[in-house]
Amino acid sequence: MLMLGQKDYSNAGKTAEYIRQRGIDSIRFPEMILELAKRQGGAVTKKDVMELLHVSKPQAYKTLQQMREDKLLKLEGKGRFAFYRITGKTA
């Protein structure tokens, strides 16, 4: 999957398409993360999210934190052994 950045869209004169895609991403990313978690026994790691969405570590963290705030995931463990488990709200 090829991911284009804002600069690529801007250079092609397609700024509106970039904004539309970003809006879609903000909706689809949590759905995709939940689907992956379900297929992995109910849990994902930050690394899983980075690989799934092709995003940076800070972007993966921000998405996972938002999902925690929305009570879709809960954090278990600490540091490099941390993972995010699906809550009862989404199971």
Automatic annotation (TrEMBL):
InterPro entries cross-referenced by the UniProt entry: WH-like_DNA-bd_sf, WH_DNA-bd_sf
Gene3D superfamilies reported for this sequence: Winged helix-like DNA-binding domain superfamily/Winged helix DNA-binding domain
SUPFAM superfamilies xref list: Winged helix' DNA-binding domain
Name of this protein: Uncharacterized protein
Record organism: Mesosutterella porci
